[in-house]
UniProtKB/TrEMBL annotation:
<comment type="pathway">
    <text>Cell wall biogenesis; peptidoglycan biosynthesis.</text>
</comment>
<keyword id="KW-0460">Magnesium</keyword>
<dbReference type="Pfam" id="PF01820">
    <property type="entry name" value="Dala_Dala_lig_N"/>
</dbReference>
<dbReference type="GO" id="GO:0071555">
    <property type="term" value="P:cell wall organization"/>
</dbReference>
<keyword id="KW-0547">Nucleotide-binding</keyword>
<dbReference type="InterPro" id="IPR011127">
    <property type="entry name" value="Dala_Dala_lig_N"/>
</dbReference>
<keyword id="KW-0464">Manganese</keyword>
<keyword id="KW-0479">Metal-binding</keyword>
<feature type="active site">
    <location>
        <position position="17"/>
    </location>
</feature>
<dbReference type="InterPro" id="IPR011761">
    <property type="entry name" value="ATP-grasp"/>
</dbReference>
<comment type="function">
    <text>Cell wall formation.</text>
</comment>
<keyword id="KW-0963">Cytoplasm</keyword>
<dbReference type="GO" id="GO:0009252">
    <property type="term" value="P:peptidoglycan biosynthetic process"/>
</dbReference>
<comment type="similarity">
    <text>Belongs to the D-alanine--D-alanine ligase family.</text>
</comment>
<feature type="domain" description="ATP-grasp">
    <location>
        <begin position="103"/>
        <end position="310"/>
    </location>
</feature>
<dbReference type="GO" id="GO:0005524">
    <property type="term" value="F:ATP binding"/>
</dbReference>
<keyword id="KW-0436">Ligase</keyword>
Length: 316
């Protein structure tokens, strides 16, 4: 573990999730200052490289969501600059950020994930939308959940309960990405499990249960106070909580992640955990799940973030 001089929090960027990223960056900066860390906050723009070359930080905390913040691109630049950072390396990010690829890895280690099909926009149009959508429903049934294959914050995601709703859901999805992931919807308890590793191996924080107003944890439900009820820890039996935690740690390891991650799961009526997706740069806003899990574990967010930065700086 290394002592910290000054650290850099990266927030903003140009993805659809810019506003959420700015809020995450502000929160991380505030809690780090509260534990006496010298923090500089910067956007990922044309001023970044000259600034860090002139005054290199001891470590970087990436709170960029979507796009370059989670697909490995900005982390590749940080490695070119020789700057240690909190979070997964570029190769692991690329795998985790692409949901169909991540699901394939998850299946390979024996975890459950909903049946799905990934459909690029070109295929959707070239083969005839009506015929393709009909076959999707024949194979996966209803209800379905449609979301972009890459991206977060539930942007472009929607529930499909009837065949008539599927075309509009696809159009909405393609507004945020070129490939749609159409999954069989699993009824059950939605939970999120955060994983942290301060150098002694990954450990799961208490699962957070999500009960969204209207039943769908969409963008508005995520970032509008009062739209969603959270229970931390989740209202599950000790055995189910342990199963969720094992699933999240297994996913973290299988995907080659590092330092922190957040895995979203559904626990069905039979007590089976189903992997939905993983986030390599969990939200840190006032309504985000990672800070709720930290608080539920009786830990201080600023102290934890400082520990993650110290572990990153130690890799220099």
């Amino acid at each position: 573990m290394s002592d910290l001089g000054h650290v850099l929090v990266l927030a903003g960027g140009l993805s659809y999730e810019r506003e959420v990223s700015l809020r995450s960056g502000r929160r991380v900066s505030e809690v780090l200052r509260a534990v006496e860390v010298d923090v500089e906050t910067r956007d990922a723009d044309a001023t970044l490289v000259p600034a860090v070359l002139a005054d290199p930080p001891d470590a970087v905390f990436v709170t960029l969501h979507g796009g370059s913040g989670e697909d490995g691109a900005i982390r590749s630049v940080l490695e070119l600059l020789g700057l240690p950072y909190v979070g997964a390396d570029p190769d692991a990010c690329r795998v985790a950020y692409d949901k169909p690829t991540a699901k394939a890895v998850i299946r390979s280690v024996g975890l459950h994930t909903p049946d799905s099909v990934a459909l690029p926009k070109e295929t959707f149009h070239d083969l005839g939308a009506s015929a393709v959508l009909s076959r999707i429903i024949d194979r996966l049934g209803l209800p379905l959940f449609v979301k972009p294959a890459r991206g977060g914050s539930a942007l472009g995601a929607s529930m499909v309960r009837t065949a008539e709703e599927l075309p509009a859901a696809m159009v909405g999805c393609f507004a945020y990405g070129d490939t749609a992931l159409i999954e069989r919807y699993i009824e059950g308890v939605e939970v999120s499990v955060s994983v942290v590793d301060l150098g002694d191996g990954p450990e799961a924080l208490p699962p957070v249960e999500i009960v969204a107003d209207g039943g769908v944890y969409d963008y508005a439900a995520r970032y509008t106070a009062g739209r969603t009820e959270f229970f931390a820890p989740a209202r599950l039996t000790p055995d189910l909580i342990a199963a969720c935690e094992r699933t999240a740690v297994t996913a973290h390891n299988a995907l080659g992640l590092r330092d922190l991650s957040r895995t979203d799961l559904i626990v069905d009526a039979d007590g089976q955990c189903h992997f939905l997706e993983v986030n390599v740069a969990p939200g840190m806003t006032e309504t985000s799940l990672f800070p709720m899990a930290v608080e539920s574990a009786g830990r201080d967010l600023g102290t934890l973030c400082r520990g993650l930065l110290q572990a990153a700086a130690g890799r220099r």
